[in-house]
């Protein structure tokens, strides 16, 4: 980081790299989540890819901008929503007389995006839960790093 007129700025190469890779990380993660039931990957892997966007924002712009760009309270609430969606989908099987998490709702032909039935939607819920949960954890860790950066600036 360079000091220019008392303003701390990030390296332009890191900033441009973060700017160029951020859309690809988000799109790739969303594709892995959406097609996880019919291809390698799934909710967890895609969620982590999307959550990596928080790291890219931090690396490119610093702690202050990352905190301004991402609402931590909103992420925390949405993590709970993802968990509730997963449990509701898993309970559908119980209400239909099967075991918890049993694939009771089946749609389409083999190979279709929704052919996995309930499992497809559960994968989406896992992806949502992981991207919010891991994103929240990453931002918490980055907040700790940001606190150290602010202490160094004061000295």
Question: Brief description of this entry?
Answer:
By secondary structure, this protein is mainly α.
Walk me through this protein's architecture.
The protein is elongated. Helix 2 (43-61) packs across helix 3 (63-69), helix 2 (43-61) runs parallel beside helix 5 (118-154) and helix 4 runs antiparallel to helix 5. The longest helix has 37 residues, at 118-154. The chain has 155 residues and is mainly alpha-helical. The chain contains 5 helices and 2 strands; from the N terminus they run E-E-H-H-H-H-H. A two-stranded antiparallel ribbon has the order 1-2. It starts with a strand and ends with a helix.
Order of helices and strands: EEHHHHH
**Average predicted local confidence, pLDDT:** 82
- Count every helix, treating DSSP H or I runs of 4 or more residues as helices: 5
- Estimated helix fraction: over 70%
**Uncertain residue segments:** none
As a percent range, the share of strand residues is under 5%
Radius of gyration: 20 Å
Structural class: mainly alpha
Biggest sheet strand order reads 1-2
- Count of discrete domains: 1
Topology, number of strands: 2
Distance between the first and last residues' Cα: 16 Å
Give the biggest sheet: 2 strands, antiparallel
Shape: elongated
């Amino acid at each position: 980081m360079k000091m220019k007129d008392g303003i701390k700025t990030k390296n332009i190469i890191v900033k441009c790299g973060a700017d160029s890779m951020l859309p690809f990380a988000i799109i790739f993660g969303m594709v892995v989540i959406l097609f996880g039931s019919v291809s390698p990957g799934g909710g967890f892997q895609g969620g982590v890819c999307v959550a990596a966007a928080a790291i890219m924002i931090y690396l490119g712009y610093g702690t202050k901008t990352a905190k301004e760009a991402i609402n931590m309270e909103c992420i925390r609430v949405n993590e709970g929503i993802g968990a509730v969606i997963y449990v509701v989908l898993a309970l559908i099987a119980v209400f239909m007389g099967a075991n918890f998490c049993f694939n009771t709702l089946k749609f389409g032909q083999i190979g279709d995006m929704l052919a996995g039935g309930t499992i497809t939607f559960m994968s989406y819920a896992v992806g949502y839960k992981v991207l919010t949960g891991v994103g929240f954890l990453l931002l918490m860790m980055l907040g700790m790093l940001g606190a150290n950066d602010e202490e160094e600036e004061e000295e």
